[in-house]
Amino acid sequence: MKIDILTLFPEVIQAYLNESIIKRAIQNNLVTIKVHNIRDYSLDSHKKVDDYGFGGGQGMVLMPQPIFDAVDALRTKNSKVLLMTPQGKPYHQKMAKALTKEQHLIIICGHYEGFDERIRTLADEEISIGDYVLTGGELASLVITDSIVRLLDGVIKEESHEYDSFTENLLDYPVYTRPVNFRGMEVPEVLLSGHHKNIETWRKQEQLKRTKERRPDLLEKS
Ligand code: 6GU
């Protein structure tokens, strides 16, 4: 898979991609991720990317030209263009899973007060990562990228996401490591038993219990 991210703040994105699991996935050629500065596509002599909104009231609005030219330069017939906006479709694990099937994603990060409405016509999908407002789409693009990359073949052990929270509309079960007793808090007996069937049953019960307590809305879906 290839992912192109269009942003006014490439360093912010690159810093995250240079660490941990995503970094390893890139090094192992399981994904190619390129970060592009929208400003580099501005045809303005001062590399301007935004201007005052017509009608007043708002602050600066991202202009269509740099973003249209960037998408034109990057898009192929297999590309899917995602626009990050709080007005988009609420993101969830099933969308992450579906997006792993794409060959090429172009992710556009909005910024400042907003972007010119005509930029929406470039998008195959508009995505929001939740009902709150961020200063820009950068964090959202990283959320989307991270959630997709960890699901790609070979990035993490298959077993690690088989029981992920949300995979079956259930939250994850509790996990423990050494020591067995930490400040009086004990690791559940069953996990030390080596009895795989019982461990599996316990984990399923804990998933159900946890989901019922914390996210009953998920149980209604499953
Ligand atoms: Cl995608 N962008 C911004 N600016 N705020 C958001 C968001 C995106 N998703 C939730 N809040």
Please summarize what this structure is.
This protein is α/β, with parallel strands linked by helices and 222 residues long. The chain has nine helices and ten strands. It folds into two domains: 2-149, Alpha/beta knot, CATH 3.40.1280; 163-221, tRNA(m1g37)methyltransferase, domain 2 (Trp Operon Repressor, Chain A), CATH 1.10.1270.20.
Account of the 3D structure:
This protein has nine helices and ten strands. It is α/β, with parallel strands linked by helices and 222 residues long. It folds into two domains: 148 residues, Alpha/beta knot (3-Layer(aba) Sandwich), CATH 3.40.1280; 59 residues, tRNA(m1g37)methyltransferase, domain 2 (Trp Operon Repressor, Chain A, Orthogonal Bundle), CATH 1.10.1270. Strands 2-1-6-5-8 form a five-stranded parallel β-sheet, with helices on both faces. It has a three-stranded mixed β-sheet with strand order 3-4-7, with no helix packed on it. Strand 3 and strand 4 form a beta hairpin. Helix 1 runs parallel beside helix 5. The chain is elongated, with a radius of gyration of 21 Å. It binds 6-chloroguanine.
How would the blueprint of this fold be written?
Layout (H helix, E strand, L loop, with lengths): L1 E6 L2 H8 L2 H8 L4 E6 L12 E3 L7 E3 L1 H11 L4 E12 L2 H7 L4 E6 L4 E2 L9 E4 L9 H12 L8 H5 L18 E2 L2 E2 L2 H4 L3 H19 L1 H6 L1
Parallel strand pairs: 1-2, 1-6, 4-7, 5-6, 5-8
Antiparallel strand pairs: 3-4, 9-10
Helix pairs in contact: 1-5
The structure holds 6-chloroguanine (6GU).
6-chloroguanine (6GU) binds next to β5.
